[in-house]
Amino acid sequence: MLALPQKWKNYDLLQNEVVKGSLRFKHLFAHNAHIQVNGGDAYNVNSKFAWFTPSFEITQNHTSVGQMRMNWESEVSITLPDAIAQKVISKGLFSKTYFIENQNTAKRIEIKRKLNWRKLRYTYEIADSNAAHYELTCLLAIHAIKNIDQRMAGFLAVSIVLFNQLITRL
Questions:
Q1: In the 3-class helix/strand/coil scheme, how is 157-169 assigned residue by residue?
Q2: Among 5, 109, 136, 159, which residue has the fewest nearby CB atoms (within 10 Å)?
Q3: How many domains in the chain?
Q4: 124-170, pLDDT tens digit by residue?
Q5: CATH number of residue 38's parent domain
Q6: pTM surpassing 0.70?
Q7: 126-157: string of b/e by CB count within 10 Å (b at 16+)?
């Protein structure tokens, strides 16, 4: 499976060139998103930002059906009512590979991100034969990876500004 970017803010989940789902953001740096799964199910992911522990509520027809919560280790836990709790984890701080694990820390799905330098957009390659049964989980994982990247970029930008201020005062 592949998650291909459409313009700057949207992703289509493809399997054998057939669209299995889509992830849509309102704008490039938005945290809220709309997910459409191939079966016709529509979900909204809404940010519930708390101090330093961002979380997201997953709703369907204005009813909460799950949540995502990020921790300090850049792990995102995904909790859906009809599934086992799962985590999106990376191999390292600047890793291009992410995994979706279940509660038993069994790696289920591997997601590799590749940068298209010409368009400056990421393509996500989902390497698992069972991923076709987990379209919602894969799209939520891509949402989580995008948020991890945004937070790391924001932290890096603030660090550079603070370091620059420190250097100019010396």
A1: HHHHHHHHHHHHH
A2: 159
A3: 1
A4: 888 876 665 788 888 998 888 888 877 777 778 888 999 888 888 87
A5: 2.40.160
A6: yes
A7: bebeebeebbbbbbbbbbbbbbbeeeeeeeee
